[in-house]
Amino acid sequence: FPSHDRIVTIVTIFALNYNLSGQAQPDILKLNWLMTRSINSNANNIDHGAVHVEGYSLFLVSTPTSNQKVPLEQRVKGIEAELQYAVDHNAEPETIPITVTVDPVSDQPVISINDRYLMTVTDLDAQLQGRDRQGWATQITQIIRDALIRAKLERQPSHLLWQGGIAIAIILSILVLNRLVKRWQNIVTGK
Questions:
Q1: Which of 138, 176, 129 is nearest to 35 (CA)?
Q2: pLDDT for 124-161, tens place per residue?
Q3: Helix/strand/coil (H, E, C) string of the chain?
C-alpha cells in the first residue's frame, strides 16, 4: 500500500511536468519533431545542439567536432541571443521580416531577422535534418516566426492570468488530494 507521501510526490511530479501552456502544446509538438529525428551515422564527427528561446527547443544546429574556429556552444548562444533580442524588441512578430539570402562567397543560406544576422545554415545543419540547405533554411524561418508569435502571446496579460489560474487549480487539487489521502489512510489503519 503506497504511503500518502508517495502519492503526494507522484501527483506533484505529474503537476510539475504538466505543460501549463495548454494552448502552445500543439505548436511545440509540431516544432519539436525535429529534435527527435535520428542523427546520421557520422554523428561521431559532428557536435549538435538545440537552439532554445523562451524555454522551448526550436531546432538543432551542428558543427564539426574538430571545429575550433566557432565552437558549437558559441554558435548556439549567439543564435539564442539574437532570437531573444527579436522577442524583446519587436512588438509585431507576425510582420517582422525574417529573410533568407544566399551568401555569394560560401553559397550558403543566411537567415536574418529585421536585417540583423541570425545564422548561416550549413550543410551539416541541413544534413542533420535530411534536408537541403535552402529547404531547411525556409523551414527554420517558419519555426522562428511561430516561436516569436508564441512568445508574444505568452506575454499577454490574459495568457498570464490563465496560466496563474491553472497553477492555482493544480495547487488546490494537490492540497485536496493530500487531505483525502490522509483521511483514507486514517480509515484504513483504524485511527
A1: 129
A2: 999 888 899 999 999 999 999 999 998 888 877 776 78
A3: CCCHHHHHHHHHHHHHHCCCCCCCHHHHHHHHHHHHCCCCHHHHHEEEEEEEECCEEEEEEEEECCCCCCCHHHHHHHHHHHHHHHHHHCCCCCCCCEEEEECCCCCCEEEEECCEEEEECCHHHHHHHCCCHHHHHHHHHHHHHHHHHHHHHHCCHHHHHHHHHHHHHHHHHHHHHHHHHHHHHHHHHCC
CA distance 75 to 39: 19
Residue type, 38: S
Give pLDDT tens digits for 28-69. 333 434 443 444 445 567 888 999 998 899 999 988 877 666
- Packed helices 72-89 and 133-154: angle between N→C axes, nearest 10 degrees: 50
* Single-letter residue type at 115: D
Cell 500543439 identifies what position?
26
Give the whole-angstrom CA distance, residue 175 versus residue 191: 21
